[in-house]
Amino acid sequence: MEHISNIDCQKAFYCALHANRKFGYGGIDHTGIELFLILEDIRDEDCEPLSKHCKSEWLVIPAVPVLFGFFQFVYFTNRSVDDFKASIEPDLVCFHARACPRVVLDIVPIQVTNGLTCFSPVNFSLFYKLNNFNDAFDIFSHYNRYCRTTGIEQSCINSFDFYCNESMKCISYNRVGDVQSDCYYGEDEQFDACHLNDSNRFKCSSEPNKCLLQVATGDNIINCRGEEDEMFAYTQHFSILLPYAYICDADSHLYSYFYTMNDTDESNCHWWPCNNPYTHCNQLWNCPNGIDERNCPDSKCSFNEHECYNQQSKSFYCISLTNIYDKYFNSCNETSFERNVYFYNGTDDISKDYFSWNNSHCLNFDKLCRMNSYLEISSSEENICLYPSENFY
């Protein structure tokens, strides 16, 4: 609530939302394990009305529509204390229509403010009386997925896209048959991907009409009826069996099998693509420039931007590649190299000392090294970005 500048207003709002409520889950789950409350904040004292301290007609939480991924709650300040005690249901729910276009068809828009579409929760098909934020989570976790996996497209402009006819959304064919439903109604996983004639797909011998992406094999999940998708890949020079997804995943798995070997599943990874189906959008930067975390399904940024989160302001923002730079290494003969990454949005030409991330698809040691003590850098460009060497971080 730091975005509310008036401290008294902020306290009154906090009290109204927290009075006589528990946050988190308690009790015992289906396995008999006790569940502890994430936060317990039970207040019996009377709260002051918002109108006493808040001059604006409404208050929002959070400052931008990122609640449950897409939404912002709006509360009118003329609302009584008793209304808050009965329910924390917001007076309005706002969101970016272009980020969640299918929801627009399910509501009656009553207000558009600051570029956001707003509606009364009374008109929300799955909305019911909210006693606490656990209730809100139960509802909006559904709508988070609904926004991510539905659209309003009538067809796909790109012939390389798969059209989810019921979900009305276009997705890449590379997301069809990966055992993850990227279409709300599951069209991408119900489709017979064997018709694509993709030689890189794994065909289930026990299910001739089922062809999986490689990402769905060796993932410790049985996706073929005969379990053949869990065939293991051999590591180089050793007949120790490991799931394919374990290779170069930044976590060594071989030490528990054979302590004396020199090579492990994490050896020679500088010859391995850092942006692959197992690392793409796994919320870790496996590539030096984070290319494996760009263009993710849930990202609110464009293809040439990185999505960042400010913990202090609790807000998301996008940084363009044109503003990110690496400082060149003056010496290339060291045993290890520590990078210096900078944000710059000025107008001066700093290319003499800094390498722009916008200049290259991949980022590696050769591009940051001043070759032969000159400013000349390697001009070679790779189509596939590889893992950085161990001495480059």
Secondary structure layout plus pairing:
Blueprint: H1 7-18, E1 21-23, E2 27-28, E3 34-35, E4 39-41, H2 50-53, E5 58-61, E6 71-76, H3 81-86, E7 92-95, H4 101-104, E8 111-113, E9 116-119, H5 133-149, E10 161-164, E11 169-172, H6 187-190, E12 202-203, E13 211-212, E14 233-234, E15 241-242, E16 305-310, E17 315-320, E18 324-327, E19 341-343, E20 354-356, H7 365-368
Antiparallel strand pairs: 1-4, 2-3, 5-6, 6-7, 7-9, 8-9, 10-11, 12-13, 14-15, 16-17, 18-19, 18-20
Percent of residues in beta strands: 15-25%
Physical arrangement of strands within the biggest beta sheet: 5-6-7-9-8
What structural category arises from helix and sheet content? alpha+beta
Q: What characteristic shape results from the CA principal axes?
A: globular
Helix and strand succession? HEEEEHEEHEHEEHEEHEEEEEEEEEH
Major beta-sheet overview: 5 strands, antiparallel
Radius of gyration: 26 Å
The total count of helices amounts to 7
Distance between the termini: 37 Å
Low-confidence stretches: 34-44, 232-238, 256-260, 372-380
Description:
It is a single chain. With 393 residues, this protein is of the alpha+beta class. Helices cover 13% and strands 18% of the residues. The radius of gyration is 26 Å and the shape is globular. The relative contact order is 0.07.
